[in-house]
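Project channel, design review

CF: Before we commit to the Modicisalibacter tunisiensis constructs, I'd like one complete example in the thread so the newer folks can see what an input/output pair looks like. Taking Translesion error-prone DNA polymerase V autoproteolytic subunit.
RD: sounds good, go ahead.
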Amino acid sequence: MPLALPVSTIRIRAGLSGFPSPAQDYASDRLDLNAHLVKRPSATFFMRVSGDSMDGFGMHEDDLLIIDRSLDPRPGHMVAALVDGEIIVKRYEMHHGRPCLVSGNPRYAPIPLVEHDCQIWGVVRAVIHQYPV
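CF: and here is what came back for Translesion error-prone DNA polymerase V autoproteolytic subunit:
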C-alpha cells in the first residue's frame, strides 16, 4: 500500500549562501519513497550491507541497498554479485580491458571476474543510510 508523506518544495542547501526569502513558497507535496526509489518493482529487491569494504563509496554496515535486476551493469555501477558462492556488493570497473569488482576500501584488492565464478544479480539503485539518534 502506498504511503505518501509530506516533502517540502524547498531545496535544502549543503553550504552557506544566506537565508531563503521570507516570501518563498513553503508549500509541500507528497512523496512515496517506493514510487521514488523503486523503478521496476518486479525486478527490485533489498539487501543489507555487512562489512567495511564499501565504506569509501558511502555504503556502511547495516545500510539498506535497493537493487534492480533489470539493469545491465556498466563500469562505475555498484552491483550485487554472487562470486565463488559469496554474495557481495562492489563497484563494477574495467582494469586493463578486463572486468573487475572493486571495493571502496584500499585494504581489499580488485576481484578480476575472469578468474572467478561470478553472477551479477543486479545494479544498486540507492543506498539508505540512517544516522544514530
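RD: helpful, thanks. The CA atoms of residues 53 and 107 lie 8 Å apart.
CF: The beta strands are 4-8, 28-32, 44-48, 64-68, 78-83, 86-95, 98-102, 111-112, 118-128.
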